[in-house]
Amino acid sequence: MDNFLNNLYNLVLDATKTGSIIEVLRLLSEEDYILGASVFLISKESDNKNNLKKLFEAVGEPIEAPEKNIITDNTIYEFLPSLDKSEGILGVKINRDLTLNELSNIKAAAIALGVCLTRVTVSGTLNTINNRVGLLNELSRLSASNATQDRIFKVLAKDSAFRTKAQGSIAVQYSKEDRTLKICGIFGLPVNYMGQTINIDNSQVLRSLEMASIISLPDLKNSHDSYLSQLGVLGFNAANITPLILMDDMFGALILLYKNYPNFDENTNLILGDISQGSSLALAGCMQREQLSKYTSKLEDLVEERTKELAIQTARADEASLAKSQFVANMSHELRTPLTSIVGFSSLLSEGLLGELNSQQEDAIKSVVKATEYLKDLINDVLDMARVESGKEEASPKKIKLKEVISQTTKLLQQTAKSKNIDLRSEISEELADSAIFVDARHIRQIIINLISNAIKYTHTGGWVKINAEVLSDKMKISITDNGVGISNQDKKKIFQAFDRLEDDYSKEQIGTGLGLNLTKRLVELNCGVIDFESTAGEGTVFSIYIPLFTELNEEISARKLISNKEEQSICLLNDLNILILDDDLPTLELIGTLVESLGGSCFKCSNIKSAMETSKNNSVDAYLVDIALRGESGIDFIKTLKKTNITVPIIVVSGCVFGTHEQESLKEGADAFLSKPFSSGELSSLIRSKSIEKAMRS
Fold first, then answer.
1. pLDDT digits (tens, 9 = 90+) for 125-150
2. Tally of CB atoms within 10 A around 73
């Protein structure tokens, strides 16, 4: 008995296929009291346990299916326990009366058969689930990989045949525009079947699509579909057509071909449903991507076309502007030659060096001199404007004492102010007057002269014009205030426009070109400054300019900027700058260090935050290059620590983390710029240089 039960136990452990049931029956039939053994299955569709569906397995003498669960003289029937809805019956034919141990063996065999049957059923279900999951994963992978529709159809034909045990398959694509069915994927058929078009008349494929249902054809030879009936020549006798539809979109169909018509069970039907839905979703996503790609391509072509047109128009505008500036410059230069003669001879006549003049002639000469002075001012303004517009005017900033500029300009204009009995005075303290600004010397004089001249011009006789200054952060604010006619609200918006004049009666009486304030604004901005004004009509005006203060650092940066403009010295862009590099990837650390040194800079290479902090405390650092993704540390923490020390040099994040959140977090915590790896030496040096200048201007 023990030997029988041990063998039975081993068979149950290995039970994964229906063959294990036969082995159990054979083991049982080897007992000397057994003549035959059979297993009967009770139908799932029936609640009547006596409704036996079929004989499952038989060993030895045949046994009749029982009508009732009874023990006859020579036959014993035992129910098989099962987790499945199906149940079975073990029938055993015996040749004698049995002992209790022998009856126990039969019951044990029934239990073993029930376990085997359950394990076989569960194994089949798991295989089906794995098949379904594998199919959906494959379709999902295709969809995510941006596969084309042709690729999806080809994979679908092969994979579906494998999962449904079909001997052949055809994937057909449907075109709604021209109502055609094109073969895009095959398996188990000659290659020359690819690309063929199926006749749509009386097509079972089209019928399946229109009905949105699976069609089974157990006899292809007698099918009314002329295309499918021809497949019988290749040995296929049956087919199953599964439509590929998503809502109202018909993508095509899958034709599964069989030598003999299969008996589809519930699991196969589930797989066919998955094929239909999963493939339709993949094809829908592919179609949308292709449509979006076409639209994007069309949009890119349109943008490129418009960009070319805009570039042409911009080039024409630039050419016209350059031609205008060149024309103005040439004409101004040409006008200065005859104007020199007019001014010279007028002076000789007015001073009596060519003989005495009568009173009428003197008045005429004075008018000529006054007109030539106005014409000379106009030509000078036009020349300056032409140089600025053409880009030929450049600022060469240097250290200039504020009191020198104010003293020179007020002396020049003091006589003009006295002629109108206007009090022109400077209210700048001696301490502030000794401050230095960083600006082009010629430009700042022209700016101050223009503003003071304007203030005198638009101030009534007996008024006043005063000059004062104050330091605001990294700028010197210079203000010219008057108690003149002021500016109306309607004129404020056009105060800096070229050739515009104020509309009040007093302003119309003044002589001017209308270029002074426009040119002044351009010169201020050329020197990295800002100009602003406040005015009340009838009460006066305050014009203020904000010019960079002088520091040794911005003078040094200016010198480097001049060097960087020379192409042959571009490799020295980082000369004398000490760069601290924090990166835990040693090859990257060496690479960035080499780039910095090749650009003329010096570097401190650190692979962790502790080393970087010690180096920063003990050395002078002009810029930091920080990787935020450090092993076991965060570069963000290093940036936060640096910001607490109130450093005035740029912090640039150099990282392979290219997601927008990384850049946003870096800038939020105090970084000045974010440079994604990989990068060129030009990008690195340009960023360090620009951020260094920017920080220097603010500090």
1. 677 677 667 766 766 676 666 778 78
2. 6
With a CB cutoff of 8 Å and minimum separation 6, the contacts of 324 are none
Q: Report which DSSP code applies to 549.
A: B
Please write the tens of the pLDDT for every residue from 166-201: 889 998 888 888 888 888 888 988 888 877 888 887
Enumerate residues 6+ apart whose C-beta is below 8 A from 640: 669, 670
pLDDT over 60 at 510, yes or no: no
Cα-based angle 484, 486, 488 (whole degrees, multiple of 5): 160
| pLDDT tens per residue, range 458-490 | 899 999 999 999 988 788 999 999 999 998 888
Residue 271: closest CA among 154, 131, 161: 131
Pick from 240, 232, 274: nearest CA to 257: 240
Residue 279: how many other CB atoms lie within 10 Å: 29
Q: How far apart are CA 636 and CA 674, in angstroms?
A: 12
State the average pLDDT over residues 238-248.
85
- On the question of a cis peptide bond just before residue 678, with omega within 30 degrees of 0, the verdict is yes
Beta bridge partners of 300: none
Mind giving me the DSSP string for 546-607? EEEBP-HHHHHHHHHHHHHTSGGGGGGTTTT-EEEEE-S-HHHHHHHHHHHHHTT-EEEEES
In angstroms, the CA 505 to CA 510 distance is 9
Gyration radius of the chain over CA positions: 49
Is residue 23 within 8 Å of 97, Cβ to Cβ? no
Higher pLDDT, 217 or 554: 217
Tokens 């991507």 map to which residue? 289
Catalogue the E-assigned strands of 18-84.
34-42, 52-60, 75-80
Counted residue by residue, the chain has a size of 699
Q: ∠ CA 549-543-485 to the nearest 5 degrees?
A: 165
